Amino acid sequence: MPLEPLDFLNGILNLIFILVSIFLGFIIIGKYFKNKNFNFILTGVTWVLLVSGWYGTTASFLAALLTNGDGLSFESIMLLNFIPLPFALISWMTAFTNFLYKEKQKLILIGCGVLIGSFYSIFLFYLFTDPIVIGEKISPVDTKGNSPILAGFVIILLLIMLISGVKFALETMKYDDKETKTKGKLLLLAFPSFCIGGFLDALIPSTAITLVIFRVILISSAVEFYGGFILPNWMKKLLIQ
After folding, report:
1. Which of 8, 116, 155, 161 is the most buried (most CB within 10 A)?
2. From CA 197, how far away is CA 60, in angstroms rounded?
3. Number of C-beta neighbours around residue 135 at 10 A
4. Does the structure show a pLDDT above 60 at 151?
């Protein structure tokens, strides 16, 4: 299963998206050491974990590139993609409920824990007993999902992230401070951009054009998320008059 030109493009774009996301996520995490606000660790970790849905195929691309082989096994790709991903929900909902609905934080986190525990039980059981139920590998850098349960979990995860992210952004935009309001606007772009880009990437068959468009949307969501929590000077100059 050698790399085709489309596979190579897919792998390179995945790698760029992952590297940009991890780099920006760690910048957000690093903000904690300046002001000791633990929410920066939570939000930075959220983004690093949230993009893990592309970790497996990116690692498989690198393995195929280095060995001129088939890349990683389907099981390895799925583990890299989906073992870290649910924890993004925990880290984000912890940060979200630190800002809003603090009194309901414990209940919300318990609900997230039940959802994640149910997912892991089903996912790991079928992955190691009958992986075709979960999906199949169609190239070193691409997989096909066969499980409505897996698809349902990803949709629920995206919906929770989208709804809570938009709610947080709208609340942030209520502040009179221009910088804070601008951060809210960036977050209002970041969450829908990620959800739309990820949904389209999973749903629509890959072509050179769709790959470029969807990865640009995803990379833009990473930059918007970073700006929504850090707002570096170059963004301030660009966005605040």
Report:
1. 161
2. 21
3. 19
4. yes
Q: How high is the pLDDT of residue 241?
A: 66
Residue 173 has which token pair? 């935009």
Give the integer Cα–Cα distance in Å for 64 and 103.
Answer: 49
- What tens digit of pLDDT does each residue of 181-233 get? 999 999 999 999 999 998 888 888 889 999 999 999 999 999 999 999 999 99
In angstroms, the CA 230 to CA 28 distance is 7
Please name each of the domains of the chain with its CATH number.
5-239 (1.20.1070)
Query: Token pair 């209520």 is at which residue?
Result: 174
Which residue carries 């904690």 as its tokens? 32
In the prediction, which pLDDT does 172 show? 93
Percent of the chain whose predicted confidence (pLDDT) is above 70: 99
Give how far the C-alpha of residue 129 lies from the chain's centroid of Cα atoms, to the nearest Å.
27
* pLDDT at res. 1: 57
On whether the CB atoms of residues 193 and 218 are closer than 8 A, the answer is yes
Cα separation, 89 vs 97, whole angstroms: 12
The secondary structure of 133-172 as a DSSP string is GTEEEEETTEEEE--HHHHHHHHHHHHHHHHHHHHHHHHH
Element (H, E) at 214: helix 208-229
Q: Are 127 and 143 in contact (CB under 8 A)?
A: no
Exposure of 24 in the CB half-sphere (CA atoms within 13 A): 25
Tell me the C-alpha to C-alpha distance, in Å, between residue 29 and each of 47, 83, 134, 194, 232: 10, 21, 33, 20, 14
Give the span between the Cα atoms of 204 and 152, in whole angstroms: 17
